[in-house]
């Protein structure tokens, strides 16, 4: 069964959560009885939504976002299938999916919904937030071992069809990718630069948005997490091959690069930091604490990530934390999670960006 969950924000002035009756399933993007759950914060000057009738019950899930008005649980009228597309066409549109590289029926179903939705919304690209390729009984190895690894075709090209294969995938690595040959994913990007975009472990991309620019800061969080732990020899060897051998000095190098990128993009309309490991929605581990301090200092628009196999969202100061780690595997939400969370499901996130607002739509598939 497919459920559609909308998380919407612009400038945090008001907020509400909405649980809808089933919507019509026409249009191919959703089965016959999906439900909509809205997570909304809006800027009154720009956003208009269906009228709400509040039952004045407190929101059951905490949402720390510095909102001026009380968060309430509300109900609105059923939506039509066409209403999942914003009335105003976004200037920038993209999908966010993580932990997708486990071939199974759930991956296929999520991929189909992505393809169907892509025909309607025409996203500019997909953000892949890591754990792109898992081990299976047949392949045995995590990640990929070369640019010719069969997983490129079997786990990705054959699965994500239609419009989602006609747009680039902007990618970072997860921990499972570091258990193969991580350099092969960079090399594949050089061979297929219009499809798989990952020119390095840390990289940046600036996109035009009307008269403004949007920055994407793509980071590798693996050393920040695993340099403080006992890890498998293959990951340690891969860190050494990358030149990441001197502990705290490498951590400092990574954090310095991230801070430099945040400083370079202070003039951008929006700044998205994209990594694999969680912050905000789950308790940070290792040197992710220092990364959290940087995000607190510079307050980018959002941090987008996966790793924990759930769909979650929260905010901290002016920064939204959007977790999309349920592309093919699932688990319970973090026991210490802060904010909105949906575990034991699979799905992805659809982001629509205009000069006035950003809308994150959480798409959830449960068998």
From TrEMBL:
One Pfam family from the record: Metallophos
Residue ranges of the TM segments: none
Signal peptide from the UniProt entry: 1-15
Keyword Chloroplast: no
Stored InterPro entries: Calcineurin-like_PHP, Metallo-depent_PP-like, Metallophosphoesterase_PAP
Occurrences of domain Calcineurin-like phosphoesterase (ranges): 94-310
Gene Ontology MF terms in the entry: hydrolase activity
Domain of life: Eukaryota
Keywords of this entry: Hydrolase, Signal
Protein name: Calcineurin-like phosphoesterase domain-containing protein
Species assigned in the record: Batrachochytrium dendrobatidis (strain JEL423)
Lineage: Eukaryota, Fungi, Fungi incertae sedis, Chytridiomycota, Chytridiomycota incertae sedis
């Amino acid at each position: 069964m497919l459920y559609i969950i909308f998380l919407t924000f612009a400038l945090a002035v008001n907020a509400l959560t909405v649980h809808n009756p089933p919507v019509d399933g026409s249009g191919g993007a959703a089965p016959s009885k999906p439900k909509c759950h809205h997570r909304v914060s809006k800027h009154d000057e720009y956003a208009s939504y269906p009228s709400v009738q509040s039952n004045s019950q407190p929101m059951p899930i905490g949402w720390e976002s510095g909102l001026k008005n009380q968060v309430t649980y509300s109900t609105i009228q059923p939506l039509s299938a066409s209403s999942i597309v914003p009335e105003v066409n976004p200037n920038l549109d993209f999908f966010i999916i993580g932990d997708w590289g486990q071939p199974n029926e759930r991956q296929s179903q999520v991929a189909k919904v992505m393809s169907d939705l892509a025909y309607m919304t025409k996203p500019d690209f997909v953000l892949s937030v890591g754990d792109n390729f898992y081990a299976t009984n047949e392949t045995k190895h995590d990640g990929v071992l070369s640019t010719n690894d069969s997983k490129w075709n079997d786990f990705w090209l054959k699965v994500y069809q239609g419009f989602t294969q006609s747009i680039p995938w902007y990618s970072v690595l997860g921990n499972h990718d570091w258990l193969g040959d991580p350099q092969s994913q960079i090399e594949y990007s050089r061979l297929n630069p219009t499809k798989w975009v990952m020119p390095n472990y840390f990289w940046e991309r600036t996109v035009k948005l009307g008269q403004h620019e949007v920055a994407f800061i793509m980071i590798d969080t693996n050393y920040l997490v695993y340099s403080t732990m006992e890890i498998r020899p293959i990951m340690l060897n891969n860190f050494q091959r990358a030149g990441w051998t001197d502990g705290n000095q490498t951590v400092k190098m990574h954090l310095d690069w991230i801070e430099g990128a945040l400083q370079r993009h202070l003039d951008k309309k929006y700044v998205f930091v994209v990594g694999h490991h969680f912050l905000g929605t789950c308790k940070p581990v290792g040197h992710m604490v220092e990364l959290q301090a940087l995000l607190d200092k510079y307050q980018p628009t959002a941090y987008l990530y996966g790793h924990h196999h759930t769909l979650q969202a929260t905010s901290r100061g002016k920064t939204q934390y959007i977790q999309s780690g349920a592309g093919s595997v699932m688990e319970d939400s973090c026991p210490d999670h802060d904010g909105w969370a949906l575990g034991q499901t699979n799905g992805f996130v659809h982001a629509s960006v205009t000069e006035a607002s950003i809308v994150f739509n959480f798409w959830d598939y449960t068998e």
